TrEMBL record:
Belongs to the kindlin family. It comes from Burhinus bistriatus. The keyword Nucleotide-binding does not apply. GO terms for cellular component: cell projection; focal adhesion. It comes from the Eukaryota. One of its GO terms (biological process) is cell-matrix adhesion. SMART domains: B41 (SM00295), PH (SM00233). The gene is Fermt1. Residues 378-474 form the PH domain. GO terms for molecular function: integrin binding. Keywords: Cell adhesion, Cell junction, Cell projection. Its main location: other. InterPro entries: Band_41_domain (IPR019749), FERM_2 (IPR035963), FERM_central (IPR019748), FERM_CS (IPR019747), Kindlin/fermitin (IPR037843), Kindlin_2_N (IPR040790), PH-like_dom_sf (IPR011993), PH_domain (IPR001849). This is FERM1 protein.
């Protein structure tokens, strides 16, 4: 045996394969090295031996067996653990990658394969001019979706030629920093807040970027090219288990692409991973708003998220008919019109369409006086062995609790029952056409969830009580500043659902050409004839026809956010002590345990009550501790447990953002919360 000091003092041969394009020059080189030679010295020796004059600054050493980059150039070979049996590759750090965007367009660009995915996504978003890159990540397509695509390619007679937008000349993708002007809060608006097109005065911002006017419009405007055949060929999850498969492919944000087996020119999906869209502003976020809208649109069309027939018609009227018509109109495509609207006036008008809600009156309201609601509502309790009972009671909503009494006169005494809504699930049970305005409450109890329905008389009553329930479930009262915007949001969604048929709409020949099957999911196209669907979409369209393009997209996103399943990412798990599999739904503020067979929620745990969470990497088990001595542990069966661990940490990281801070992110905090100690 030789001691380490003796081993280090002797030179030995190290085989390095060089990734270069010169066919006449060999690719494998044997270097005579010693253990105390640092990585930078190895690269210098190698370049001297190659004798090709070119820029080697983007090259680094990749250790094939260990699947890691040797980027710390001051470290010695001994410190890295590199010995004579190591296979090293000298290759570029930035390589071509194909990315499928939420709008189903594919872009090809240079991405760092040596940076962690969190940093790589940040660079990609700078190229695409998408702010708040922390909300997005990279996803490998699910096996089932790939199988369906291969089957489609096999059956198609003509070769499939994909339309790819090439952004490979980007300064950011070449490793240079992006223009800080794109992210400055004091800069001139980049986009027209009405149509979402680039403002002509700011096209110069893109002069050093591949995002020309044409490319920018491809990313910022909706291009309705979805045919019924395209929709039929898409992978459509049928069960919760299918939906869980879609979330199994998220890449690890704290490791590089190369470390995760991604090769040059592979295709990945760029998607919004975290459903907390912070600080959406039509002036700067045309690309971001359009891509969120497109992700919502495809989620609804492919039935990744469930919605009622009435809601589907609203989405059809907004997404397709209205947005596609405006996107194709010459008005929306006009890049030359200069907007000379006063900045303050424009900002005030934009407040109407941001997702923060409407104007909040009485901002300095008396915070000691918590408002309360009191009204006649009907209580519905489902019975297992009999029909459900519906009875009218006098309800009082105060703080985060609902109490009900026999009548108004008895409200001074003890209530029949007091329901604490903190941590409950609130689900709308609405059919505007049938005048049904119900609120389904799933209240956590010791052995699961207690199901209670409240029935309201009209839209206004429903909006007030629904908003109060939603806030109470998050532990907030009606004194919170978000209460009135929430009421306004619910009323605007109900107004969109409340339509009457206009004879003028049917007589319009342009409307008759509509293909409703392009805008409606397969479940409903099978149920009705195209003419019936077209007529109903046109009815729904009457309520949204006055909207501008950007407002229609924001309303669509808002309606998507109102769906009960919005923002839930599903995973199949096995809880500690359980003998059967369950589904775990991860949302921005809670975890939900769901029965895999029925789809019913069993228990909800809020992040606000979470004390700590960790992973036992040996048995791949996630353990979480909540207030009141509640603790859970589970293993993940449909994906790596690191993905769920990162989801929880990621949502907690995003909850720390505030509008006062500048847009630089605390990347170290993100990795501390999501990385784990593997």
């Amino acid at each position: 045996m030789i001691s380490s000091s003796e081993y280090g003092s002797h030179s030995w041969e190290l085989l390095v394969t060089v990734d270069h394009q010169h066919e006449e020059v060999q690719k494998e080189f044997l270097l005579q090295v010693t253990g105390d030679l640092h990585i930078g010295g190895v690269m210098l020796k190698l370049v001297e031996q190659i004798k090709i004059s070119q820029d080697w600054s983007d090259y680094a050493l990749w250790w094939e067996q260990k699947k890691c980059w040797l980027l710390k150039t001051h470290w010695t070979l001994d410190k890295c653990g590199v010995q004579a049996d190591a296979k090293l590759f000298f290759t570029t750090q930035h390589k071509m990658l194909r990315l499928r965007l939420p709008n189903m367009k594919t872009v090809r660009l240079k991405v760092s394969f040596s940076s962690v995915v969190f940093k790589a996504v940040s660079d990609i978003c700078k190229i695409l001019n998408i702010r708040r890159s922390e909300e997005l990540s990279l996803l490998k397509q699910s096996e089932d979706a790939l199988k369906k695509k291969k089957k489609k390619d096999k059956n198609s007679k003509e070769p499939v030629t994909e339309d790819i937008l090439n952004l490979c000349d980007s300064p950011v993708s070449s490793g240079l920093s992006g223009s800080p002007g794109l992210y400055s809060k004091t800069m001139t608006p980049i986009y027209d807040p009405i149509s979402g097109t680039p403002a002509s005065s700011t096209i110069t911002w893109f002069s050093d970027s591949p995002l020309t006017e044409q490319n920018c419009s491809i990313l910022a405007l909706s291009h309705p090219d979805c045919s019924p055949e395209t929709l039929a060929e898409m992978y459509q999850p049928r069960t919760l288990a299918d939906k869980a498969k879609l979330n199994a492919g998220w890449l690890d944000s704290s490791r590089s692409l190369m470390e995760q087996g991604i090769l040059e020119d592979d295709q990945l999906l760029l998607r919004f991973k975290y459903y907390t869209f912070f600080d959406l502003n039509p002036k700067y976020d045309a690309v971001r708003i359009n891509q969120i809208y497109e992700q919502a649109r495809w989620a609804i069309l492919s039935e990744e998220i469930d919605c009622t027939e009435e809601e589907m018609l609203i989405f059809a009227a907004l997404q397709a008919y209205h947005v596609s018509k405006l996107s194709l109109s010459s008005e929306a495509q006009d890049f030359t019109c200069e907007s000379e609207v006063d900045e303050v006036e424009a900002a005030l008008s934009n407040l109407e369409v941001t997702l923060e809600g409407g104007n909040t009156s009485n901002i300095l309201e008396d915070i000691t006086d918590i408002p309360k609601l009191a009204d006649n509502l009907r209580l519905v309790r489902p019975r297992k062995l009999s029909l459900k009972t519906i009875k009218p009671y006098w309800f009082v909503f105060k703080d985060t609790s609902v109490s009900y009494f026999k009548n108004k006169e008895s409200a001074q005494g003890e209530p029949i029952e007091k329901l604490n809504l903190k941590g409950c699930e609130v689900v709308p049970d609405v059919n505007v056409a049938a005048k049904k305005f119900g609120i389904k409450l799933l209240i956590p109890v010791a052995d699961g969830m207690n199901e209670v329905y409240l029935r309201c008389e009209n839209e206004n009553q429903y909006a007030r009580w629904m908003a109060a329930c939603v806030l109470a479930s998050k532990g907030k009262t009606m004194a919170d500043s978000s209460y009135h915007p929430e009421v306004h949001k619910i009323l605007s969604f109900l107004k969109m659902k409340n339509w009457t048929m206009s004879p003028q709409a049917v007589s319009d020949p342009e409307n008759i050409d509509m293909k409703p099957e392009c805008f409606i999911s397969l479940r409903y196209t099978k149920k009705y004839k195209p003419k019936q669907l077209a007529a109903r979409i046109l009815e729904a369209h009457q309520n949204v026809s006055e909207m501008t393009l950007v407002e229609a997209k924001l309303r669509f996103i808002q309606a998507w956010q109102s769906l009960p399943e919005f923002g839930l990412s599903y995973y199949i798990v096995r809880f500690k002590g359980s003998k059967k599999d369950d589904v775990l739904g991860v949302s921005y503020n809670r975890l939900i345990r769901i029965d895999i067979a029925t789809g019913d929620p069993i228990t909800t745990w809020r992040f606000s009550n979470m004390k700590q969470w960790n992973v036992n990497w040996e048995i791949r088990q996630v353990a979480i501790e909540f207030d009141q001595n509640v603790s859970i542990a589970f293993t993940c069966l449909s994906a790596d447990c690191k993905i769920i661990h990162e989801y929880i940490g990621g949502y907690i990281f995003l909850s720390t953002r505030s509008k006062d801070q500048n847009e630089t992110l605390d990347e170290d905090l993100f990795h501390k919360l999501t990385g784990g100690q593997e």
